[in-house]
Design brief:
The complex is a heterodimer of chains A (386) and B (369). Chain A has 386 residues and is α/β, with parallel strands linked by helices. Chain A has helices at 3-34, 36-56, 75-86, 98-106, 120-124, 141-165, 188-219, 221-226, 232-261, 270-295, 298-315, 328-334, 338-352, 356-385, and strands spanning 64-70, 90-95, 112-116, 130-137, 174-181. Helix content of chain A is 69%, strand content 9%. In chain A, helix 2 (36-56) runs antiparallel to helix 7 (188-219), helix 7 packs antiparallel against helix 11 and helix 9 (232-261) crosses helix 10 (270-295). In chain B, helix 2 packs antiparallel against helix 7. The longest helix of chain B is centred in the middle third of the chain and has 31 residues, at 173-203. With 369 residues, chain B is α/β, with parallel strands linked by helices. Chain B has helices spanning 2-17, 20-40, 59-69, 84-91, 105-111, 126-150, 173-203, 205-210, 216-245, 254-278, 282-298, 311-316, 321-335, 343-366; strands at 48-54, 74-79, 97-101, 115-122, 158-165. Classes of the chains: A alpha/beta (386), B alpha/beta (369). At the A-B interface, helix 2, helix 5, strand 4, helix 6 and strand 5 of A face helix 2, strand 4, helix 6, strand 5 and helix 7 of B. Strand 4 of chain A pairs parallel with strand 5 (158-165) of chain B, so a sheet runs across the interface.
């Protein structure tokens, strides 16, 4: 047979398929454009979250209010007050009695009390030294620990300056020299913004897709589509492509605003980031499709998508909380959370660079998960056709 | 009138409870969330993997390193011999920290010069790095005190005596779990209520409801009831879990907690119904809920203090009911105090609830699809 005519024949049979697919995608894009809520979740949500994480939520403690009780003013007490006051971490308020300080802490006006007794100056010259009582508000344990560290730092500074002033060379036996790699100023923004990419793509890929497709099952329009000559593969592809585009758009907004406006470093390459995000988005879309087919009910699909993809992406991915500190059963549980692998890559690509030893193993797991979920979604949809 | 309202309430409950999948999705998720997240959400560090690069090898350095291996916060994974191995281990995230003892460590220590201990930390998780440092500081200062005592070095003229109120052992779960009670309640309540009006609008049955003799206020009560009642049941269960399972003390008054719960659920139901009345479809309602839910959790003070935020955002947090409930929860569990102590938290939630419900009721008739 003439090879030319064969290709022409193949093209003829393929052409309507491509047309059908284009038609399905066109319909889906129109649906996205017509309902402002999808656009809002893809483009408004990242901006809102970036503003909150960029300017609002900060794990860094600065300007901690401290009540400093000085029962007997004197040169020694002022020197210590100076050491506390000079620290950028504290805003100190000096009071005369412990009662006032307690009141301030109960009312939440102080996060810690530093108490110098009336005999502070006298005690300093005695063997054993003067006790400096520190009371922390322990409700936020993490913050209390950090505050305690800062107070100890200020105390150390004061000790050294005291020793220098009195001409005695007091040295600490062991001095710690701290080096932080990848985030030398320990800015929590640089840590939180990369993880946001995972949150946004999960929202679009799983929650939005699960609801949209569940609606089609709920209303019976999916069944109507299935009886047409359109292949199930084409229907799913017609759903995947538009939401994939929306997800990548949401990711681009997050990365763009994060890097350009908030000054979060991107030390790895944009290409690697986009490629990894694309793979993760496929996993999220697969989960979304699977949920929609399994539930066929918008309310339940929304609930399940939130419970199985959004909340884990938030709490179990290492986005905010460190996985290694959780109990072992929880650590095992995080292994089936796709966002965990993505967040790990995100932190590395943003802060450290293209370190393949971290990227490759995580990417492989994501690729495997994507294949599994997409295949399951496809199988489950076919079964319902029969 | 009450017969009509009662009939509507029964119908609303049926709408949520009749489908077994839907029934499961209002009971199981809050419990699962409470369990999993209470264990997962911690800022403490445990078993942080680290490597030791000991160039000194003397007895003093071994004593100092014993402080690290004895701490539950750290877990030694490697002993390294060359400087070059450090970057590799940290880059690959095999270890989070490298403890480097200088070659002259013992000599410096014995001569009374400051001996150098270098700590290299992976800053990719800035919070873990920060907390790891405070643990390192504690270990080193304990060593320093022992050394100064044993070798008759100069004693510091003053010492710190640090204690914590409300949470003496600084267990971060005591902070997270009461907060989670609020977060989980908000998530479930909003999801149940936010779809109630939108579902009927999408299915076209809401117009039928409007032409019945039911007045907007009565529809409002009917729509609010399931979310409120389900919320109260969930609230009671998870509040008990927090105390009896997770061991968070309950130092304040239970009535104060319940007044807070009622008002918080009232305002959350209000927000949910307002979003629901604004939406034309269930998708809009759910995504709209998300646009409110996520920022409101982040700005409520659940994970980071409101005082750390810029003033503009601090003002915005005033319209978030969870912010007030968070203060009540942590207060009642940890700080103590009765109903009168939380008046300033009670009234804003009541105001938010009334306003949102009023808007929702108005929208019933004035938003036509």
């Amino acid at each position: 047979m003439d090879p030319r005519s064969r290709t022409a024949g193949e093209a003829q049979t393929r052409w309507p398929q491509a047309m059908r697919l284009a038609g399905l995608m066109h319909k889906e894009f129109l649906q996205i454009l017509r309902d402002p809520s999808s656009i809002a979740i893809a483009f408004l949500m990242p901006v809102v979250l970036l503003v909150i994480f960029g300017y609002g939520v900060s794990l860094d403690a600065k300007g901690i209010p401290i009540a400093l009780v000085i029962e007997q003013p004197g040169a020694e007490a002022s020197a210590f007050a100076g050491a506390l006051g000079n620290s950028e971490y504290f805003v100190t308020t000096t009071v005369r009695t412990m009662e006032e300080a307690r009141q301030a802490m109960v009312e939440g006006r102080a996060d810690a009390i530093v108490h110098l007794r009336s005999d502070f100056a006298r005690q300093l010259r005695r063997p054993g030294g003067a006790p400096i009582q520190v009371l922390l508000n322990g409700v936020d344990a993490n913050r209390a620990r950090v505050v305690s560290g800062y107070i100890a730092g200020a105390w150390q500074t004061w000790l050294i300056s005291q020793a220098a002033a009195s001409g005695v060379a007091v040295t600490v036996p062991v001095a710690v020299e701290e080096r932080v790699w990848f985030n030398s100023e320990l800015r929590s923004r640089d840590f939180l913004v990369p993880g946001l990419v995972a949150i946004i793509t999960t929202l679009i890929g799983s929650l939005l897709t699960a609801m949209v497709v569940a609606r089609e099952w709920e209303r019976g329009t999916m069944e109507a589509l299935l009886v047409t000559p359109v292949h199930i593969r084409e229907i799913l592809l017609g759903k995947l492509v538009p939401y994939f585009a929306l997800g990548m758009g949401g990711m681009a907004v997050t990365v763009g605003v994060g890097v350009l406006l908030l000054g979060v470093p991107l030390r790895g390459s944009l290409l690697v980031l986009a490629a990894v995000a694309a793979v993760f988005l496929l996993v999220a879309l697969g989960v979304g499709l699977l949920i929609s087919v399994a539930t066929k009910n918008q309310f339940v699909a929304g609930q399940i998508a939130i419970l199985t993809s959004f909340l884990p992406a938030f709490m179990l991915s290492g986005f905010i909380f460190n996985i290694a500190s959780a109990p072992l059963p929880i650590q095992w549980l995080t292994r089936i959370v796709a966002a965990r692998y993505f967040v790990s890559i995100l932190h590395t690509v943003f802060m450290a660079g293209d370190i393949w030893a971290v990227i490759l193993p995580n990417l492989l797991v994501l690729a495997a998960m994507g294949t599994i979920f997409l295949t399951l979604a496809r199988l489950k949809s076919r079964k319902h056709l029969e | 009138m009450w017969n009509r309202v009662l009939a509507l309430i029964v119908k609303e409950f049926l709408a949520v409870l009749k489908d077994p999948k839907s029934r499961m999705s209002i009971i199981a998720p809050p419990l699962i969330q409470m369990f999993v997240f209470s264990y997962a959400a911690t800022f403490d560090i445990k078993n942080v993997p680290y490597a030791v690069y000991n160039e000194d090898g003397g007895a003093a350095s071994r004593e100092l390193l014993a402080g690290f291996s004895g701490s539950p916060a750290f877990q030694q994974k490697f002993n390294i011999e060359r400087q070059g191995q450090i970057a590799d281990l940290i880059d690959r995230q095999e270890v989070l920290m490298v403890v480097h003892v200088d070659r002259q460590f013992s000599r410096d220590l014995l001569r009374g010069n400051p001996a150098k201990l270098q700590i290299i930390v992976d800053g990719r998780n800035s919070n873990t790095a920060q907390v790891a440092f405070t643990y390192v500081q504690e270990i080193v200062s304990t060593f320093n005190e022992h050394w100064a005592e044993a070798h008759g070095g100069p004693q510091p003229p003053a010492r710190l005596d640090i204690r914590a109120w409300y949470n003496p052992n600084l267990v971060s779960r005591w902070f997270i779990v009461p907060g989670l009670v609020g977060v989980v309640l908000q998530v479930t309540t909003l999801l149940v209520t936010s779809l109630s009006v939108a579902r009927e609008r999408e299915q076209g049955t809401f117009d039928q409801l409007l032409v019945t003799p039911l007045r907007p206020l009565e529809i409002l009560i009917g729509k609010a009831a399931p979310g409120f009642v389900i919320g109260m049941v969930n609230a009671t269960i998870i509040a008990l879990l927090a105390h009896f399972w997770f061991g968070v003390p309950m130092t304040g008054s239970v009535p104060a907690l319940y007044v807070g719960m009622v008002l918080f659920l009232f305002s959350a139901v209000g927000v949910g119904l307002m979003i629901s009345s604004l939406a034309k479809t269930m998708q809009q309602a759910l995504l709209g809920t998300f646009l409110f839910l996520l920022p409101s959790i982040l700005l409520s003070g659940f994970s980071t203090p409101i005082e750390n935020m810029p003033v503009v955002l601090q003002e915005i947090t005033r319209i978030i009911p969870l912010r007030y409930f968070m203060v009540i929860l942590r207060g009642v569990y940890l700080e103590g105090g009765g109903v009168s102590m939380y008046l300033n938290q009670f009234w804003p939630m009541a105001v938010i609830g009334v306003l949102c419900l009023a808007i929702a009721g108005w929208l019933f008739r004035h938003r036509t699809t």
